[in-house]
UniProtKB/TrEMBL annotation:
Extent of Polar residues compositional bias: 1-10
Membrane spanning residue stretches: none
Cross-referenced SMART domains: HTH_XRE (SM00530), TPR (SM00028)
Gene Ontology molecular function terms on file: ADP binding; DNA binding
Domain of life: Bacteria
Alphabetical keyword list: TPR repeat
Protein name: Tetratricopeptide (TPR) repeat protein
Domain HTH cro/C1-type per the UniProt entry, residue ranges: 34-87
TPR repeats: 551-584
Length: 760
């Protein structure tokens, strides 16, 4: 930090920072919860030190978010403060690996001093909270903003970044995706990102409040894409890049524009000299000038052309410029304007200079439908071992044809992606293209299947896909976290991959890929991908005439709509699934569809109808020997009987469900059965047994990492304590539950706040 880096807007210039920064938002959340628990117990730091056997200075630092809490520290404090595991869960989030945020600046950068000064003026010294850099494609908007943001990042408490994919292949990033990126930049774990868009924005605002923050939104399509994600907090500045003038933000948010044009010829020449070496540039100044002119002084084209020059040291720059002229003439009819001739020619010129294996990798990567890709996906596209694929992708990075984002991911500039996809689409590569699409879609299917097995290993609905096709190296996940993080990271690509499978006649993959991810959908609730991918799944199952696939796709899509509150659409889809499943013959899908209809009846307080449908599901699942379906149906049947006032039947079905889950050591299922049993006991005047069930449910949910489940169990535990007259203890438990769920589910959080305020 510099001495004058305080908030200029508040007039506090010239003040040095007196308090170190929190290591992450998640560490700060842990610290707040620790302080609240300690103060609620009336303990001073020294007193907690004696109870927990941890140093008071460490407690102080942890409460201020200045150090990520170790597992041992969190367990000691949780035990001493009787926090019921809340601090342990929050500590896990605080220790999570930081999410890659601001990418590194470009290695070679010249000029733009006027724009740097403008950004300094508008962002650091001006009143505007929104600044956007606008200019044509390839002009260097992203490079400018990354260079400036990396140079000035010490002026801010935090710098966040998201690629909005406004002009990339596939769909532009949706507000929920952008907010997910930003939340993960500030340390929020994937399983702690709220499902609802408005809750994501509220959480982001809460985390940024009181901090001087720069939010970089790269490659925006228009004002409509950006407006829903603007935090609007006083000390937050949003810096945007776009090809368009974002007039809507100028009017609605007081945004300020910084315009960017191609480099001046002298600047572009300096950039070329930096890239090819001063001595070589000085040896052929006319050739360098000609090359710069052919590239329209656009930095993207200059970088690519310079790399070609640098790798051909025995040819003169003038001769190489002549080759580019010839390439430009060949492509001239395809260009939309004079500048595009040079840019496209530079792409083509560089591509045709690649060795055969690297050129093949370049065009195949253009097929990937997502915003970014891993070396594993590159290996699948090319049919190569991953270490060989990574070597080729790294060569493309060196040639400025691909960009690396973080340690694991790569992406294209949108113009280069279009060029690569066009190359791959030519007739001469038809067989290569079909094989690559098959390998990539199979790779995603096998990864989703492996993740599903890892997320819910005790469940009996998983399928064995058999050996992977030749050229596909399936991913293996050793832990729940590995599988969960892969799913969360790949969500922006899933609908595109399913659509790719459908478009290429791979109908089974087109519906099975979204269906395989259903366990993750239940945990992570990525509503947009859940719904859009299953829309594609239904199309694919219909195109392939697969009734089983159609039934499962309809059931999963119906469940998304039910949880979103669209009961009419969910009822329609569940009804269709029942009809399809009955046509197939009794199978697990029929049982799930009946349970779904029963849940809708329950939400509509039609308890007798809920009982009838749940009983039908139990009967179907019992006849076909589907234990998971039977146990789940019995949980719902027990709930329905409880609300009909049938205590014995409610307990009978709930206990039978629990025993079935316990037999398979299905921790999530055990927790899922135990909380309704606790509610039944409390409903019929037995809060002591309710407390026992709640404790067992908490243990089960902790064992499988279900934070929402833990909050639900704590909620019911608080209700049982309140009925036993332990109001203060109940209030503490409800506060713990609210800490876990307040950023995940606003309906549950609202219930808990109501309990704390005495209105529920």
């Amino acid at each position: 930090m510099t001495e004058n880096s305080g908030s200029a807007r508040s007039g506090e210039t010239g003040k040095a920072r007196t308090e170190p920064r929190p290591v992450s938002a998640a560490a700060l959340a842990f610290g707040r919860a620790l302080r609240q628990r300690r103060q609620a117990k009336g303990l001073a730091l020294r007193e907690l030190q004696k109870l927990a056997y941890v140093d008071k200075s460490l407690i102080s630092r942890a409460e201020r978010g200045l150090t990520p809490p170790s597992a041992e520290f969190a367990e000691a404090c949780d035990r001493a403060l009787e926090a019921g595991g809340t601090l342990i869960v929050l500590a896990e989030a605080a220790r999570a690996e930081p999410y890659v945020h601001l990418p590194a600046p470009p290695g070679h950068f010249v000029g733009r001093e006027e724009q740097f000064a403008l950004l300094d003026e508008k962002v650091l010294g001006g009143p505007a909270n929104v600044v956007f850099v606008a200019g044509p494609p390839g002009v260097g908007k992203t490079a400018l903003v990354l260079k400036w943001a990396n140079r000035r990042q010490e002026e801010f408490d935090s710098v966040l970044w998201s690629d909005l994919r406004g002009y990339a292949a596939g769909s532009p990033a949706q507000p929920a995706d952008i907010l997910d990126d930003l939340l993960r930049c500030v340390g929020v774990r994937p399983d702690r990102v709220p499902a609802e868009e408005h809750m994501r924005l509220a959480l982001l605002r809460g985390l940024l409040r009181g901090q001087r923050t720069l939010v970089v939104l790269d490659n925006a399509l228009d004002s409509h894409q950006v407006r829903p994600v603007l935090p609007g907090t006083p000390d937050t500045t949003v810096l945007i890049t776009s090809r368009r003038r974002l007039s809507g933000l100028v009017v609605g948010s007081g945004a300020v524009q910084v315009s960017l044009e191609p480099l001046e010829d002298l600047e572009a020449t300096r950039l070329m000299a930096d890239l090819i070496g001063d001595e070589r540039a000085a040896g052929d100044p006319e050739g360098v000038c000609r090359l710069v002119q052919l590239c329209a002084a656009l930095p993207l084209a200059v970088n690519i052309a310079a790399e070609r020059v640098a790798t051909h040291p025995h040819q003169s720059v003038g001769d190489l410029a002549g080759e580019l002229v010839a390439e430009g003439r060949r492509l001239e009819l395809l260009a939309v304007d004079d500048d595009a001739v040079g840019v496209r020619a530079a792409f083509s010129w560089s591509y045709r200079a690649l060795d055969a294996d690297t050129a093949r990798m370049f065009r195949l990567l253009g097929l990937h439908p997502g915003p970014r890709f891993t070396s594993g996906a590159a290996a699948a596209l090319s049919g190569l071992p991953e270490h060989d694929a990574r070597r080729l992708v790294d060569k493309l990075v060196q040639a400025y044809l691909v960009q690396q984002v973080g340690a694991r991911y790569y992406r294209f500039h949108d113009l280069l992606r279009v060029y690569a996809a066009e190359e791959a689409a030519t007739e001469q590569w038809r067989d290569e293209r079909q094989a690559a699409v098959s390998r990539l879609t199979h790779w995603y299917l096998y990864a989703a299947n492996a993740a599903s097995w890892t997320l819910t290993p005790a469940r009996d609905h998983h399928i064995d896909l058999g050996p992977a096709p030749e050229g596909v190296e399936p991913i293996r996940f050793d832990t729940f976290d590995e599988a969960y993080i892969w799913c969360a990271s790949e969500m922006p690509s899933i609908t595109g991959v399913a659509r790719m499978a459908l478009d290429h006649g791979l109908y089974e993959i087109g519906w099975r890929l979204p269906v395989e991810l259903f366990d993750y959908h239940l945990l992570g609730r990525p509503w947009q991908t859940w719904i859009s991918s299953h829309d594609v799944a239904i199309e694919s199952a219909k195109a392939g005439g697969d009734l089983g696939g159609l039934a499962w796709s309809a059931i999963n899509l119906a469940e998304a709509h039910r949880r979103r509150g669209d009961l009419d659409r969910a009822h329609e889809l569940f009804g269709q699934a029942v009809e399809i499943s009955e046509e197939i013959g009794e199978n697990p899908s029929l049982g799930w569809a009946l349970v779904g209809l029963g849940n809708i009846a329950h939400e509509r307080e039609e308890y007798a109808e809920a009982v009838r449908l749940a009983e039908q599901s139990v009967e179907v699942n019992t006849r076909i020997g589907y234990q998971l379906g039977e146990a789940t149906a019995r949980v719902h049947l027990g709930r329905a009987y409880r609300d009909l006032g049938e205590r014995d039947l409610a307990l009978e079905h709930g206990l039978r469900a629990f025993d079935a889950y316990a037999k398979d050591a299905d921790q999530h299922g055990m927790g899922f059965a135990l909380v309704p049993l606790a509610r039944t006991c409390r409903r019929f005047g037995d809060p002591e047994h309710a407390l026992e069930y709640c404790e067992q449910a908490l243990t089960a949910y902790r064992n499988c990492g279900d934070v929402w489940g833990q909050a639900d169990a704590l909620d019911e535990r608080g209700c049982a304590l309140a009925e036993l007259g332990h109001r203060e203890e109940a209030m503490t438990v409800w506060r713990d539950a609210l800490q876990l769920v307040m950023d995940l589910d606003d309906r549950k959080a609202s219930v808990l706040r109501g309990r704390l305020e005495g209105t529920v």
